[in-house]
Specification:
The protein is built from 5 helices and 6 strands. By secondary structure, it is α+β, with helices and mostly antiparallel strands.
């Protein structure tokens, strides 16, 4: 009995570790409470490759949607304050708009530290947006840590591109 419990625990633990070690894969669509399909909008368009409707909330949102951070910091750099202010004004004036704030880090640091730092970066943007009247219901924060780099290099130029928060507008498409 003890041997089978130990083997079972090892199998479960191995499965968990394998799942934790894989890169997260974004799903192109998810359903919300009203039954509508939510398509995440990326910097370049909807994840499924279709163009953003320029008359939709996501299509009218400010175009600059990446905020970069200094090494080991979650404080917003002064050059990004105006961009965040534009998003805050826009979301406050469009209460049906929803944004996901995705925090990212470079590869340095432990996995746990990078997840926490990515979350702190996303939350610092969320706090600034909420100070401008954006409802917390309009915002969602997520941290990918080091898992989704935009530049795979191992130098300061690459790391600087990876220390960021992406502001992703989500649009609903009725089924």
């Amino acid at each position: 009995m003890n041997k089978s419990v130990s083997i079972g625990a090892v199998v479960v633990l191995s499965s968990v570790l394998v799942a934790c070690g894989s890169n997260p894969k974004r799903t192109a669509q998810t359903a919300n409470a009203s039954g509508a399909t939510v398509n995440p909008v990326t910097i370049d368009g909807v994840d499924d490759g279709t163009q953003i409707d320029p008359d939709s909330i996501a299509g009218r949102a400010p175009k600059e949607r990446v905020i970069f951070f200094d090494f080991n910091k979650s404080e917003i750099r002064p050059e990004y304050l105006e961009i965040i202010t534009q998003h805050g004004r826009y979301l406050a004036q469009n209460p049906t708009g929803r944004a996901r704030l995705e925090g990212h880090t470079d590869e340095r640091g432990t996995r746990e530290y990078n997840i926490a730092l990515g979350e702190a970066r996303a939350k610092s943007i969320a706090r600034m947006l909420q100070l401008q009247g954006v409802s917390s219901a309009q915002l969602r924060t997520v941290s990918y840590g080091e898992e989704l780099p935009v530049d795979e290099g191992h130098n300061e130029a690459s790391w600087g591109k990876n220390r960021r928060v992406n502001i992703i507008y989500e649009v609903e498409v009725q089924n």
